[in-house]
Amino acid sequence: MSITTSVTQLLGIDHPILLAPMDRVADARLTAAVSAAGGFGILGGGYGDEKWLSRELDLLEQSQTRFGVGFITWSMAKQQKLLDLALERKPVAVMLSFWDPKPFVDRIRRTGAILICQIQSIALAKEAVAVGADILIVQGTEAGGHGASRGLISLVPEVVDAIGKSVPIVAAGGIADGRGLAAALMLGASGILMGTRFYASREAAGVQAAKERIREATGDDTLRSIVFDISRRNVWPAPFTGRCLRNSQTDRWFGREIELMRHLDEESAKYVAAREAGDFDIAAVIAGEAVGLIHDIPSAHDVIERAVHEASKLLTRWPPQVLDR
């Protein structure tokens, strides 16, 4: 059974499930796998590795799949040629997160690409709509990686109430299965974006040991902080912090961030070495509270099929118009 919403119609996909553009994880292989399964794959543009981005875009172009590209907006502002590099490959959509999208809107519009903006507050939602966002990703603090402080279950309907039905909303943060998809639709969203659930999939570019840690963790094992950002010398602008799995590094330095900065040369060297060695007692596994709902490492296809099947069964208990939003 398929679930048709304004998001599936706008993106031309079968299922209202989007891949979060995770840095180092959402590569061409995972992006293509999500799209092939009827969802919408979004390549992780990350912090702007031009060589990596060009290679992954080539692979997607060769696969002839529908795809999007996601960028960290404040980082891309320093390397604007990356947007042009992506737009040359004719992505269906471009997703901008974590800063003002306005400087990039006209260039995206000229190519006909759909503009997706990720927001974490009512104020950011209104700003994104004002500059012409076609889809809003409403991200709750439960999400892995960077985000802010609002919980998803109240933020989604509040955004719906604030902007009306003019722009489709996609819920993100703490969602890993059909229960989350059904709940998001009932809150007024037209789809979901998942990161952590797809991280723990066979096609994801992450290290197997990191995927196993996600599979074994509970939501209580995650922490939102700036410890891993300080450790890797990449502190984000306020109000954004990052959620990852707790490890010895966070246990040692959470609440002692100023002291960590005083030992930064030594600690950052340890962090880089740990990341290269796959030592996740020090290096971060960037994942959200949805880890507690993940118990296996299936294909992206199976992730989507299970979620849609489960959500469809749940939604049949409610009025049919829910499926036609």
Note the total helix count.
Answer: 16
Number of strands: 11
Poorly predicted ranges: none
Strand order of the largest sheet: 1-9-8-6-5-4-3-2
Q: Summarize the biggest pleated sheet.
A: 8 strands, parallel
Under CATH, the homologous superfamily of the largest domain reads: Aldolase class I
Radius of gyration: 19 Å
Report on the structure:
The chain is an alpha/beta fold. It folds into two domains: 6-206 and 296-324, Alpha-Beta Barrel (TIM Barrel); 208-277, no CATH class. 43% of the residues lie in helices and 15% in strands. The chain contains 16 helices and eleven strands. Helix 2 packs parallel to helix 3. It is globular. The mean pLDDT is 94.
Task: Characterize this entry briefly.
This protein has 325 residues and is of the alpha/beta class.
Write the layout of secondary structure elements.
Blueprint: H1 6-11, E1 17-19, H2 28-36, E2 41-44, H3 50-63, E3 67-72, H4 73-76, H5 81-87, E4 93-97, H6 102-110, E5 114-119, H7 122-130, E6 135-139, E7 145-147, H8 152-163, E8 169-172, H9 178-187, E9 192-194, H10 196-199, H11 208-216, E10 222-225, H12 227-231, E11 241-245, H13 248-253, H14 257-262, H15 264-277, H16 300-315
Parallel strand pairs: 1-9, 2-3, 3-4, 4-5, 5-6, 6-8, 8-9
Antiparallel strand pairs: 7-11, 10-11
What are the key terms here?
alpha/beta, 43% helix, 15% strand, three-stranded antiparallel β-sheet, 2 domains, TIM Barrel
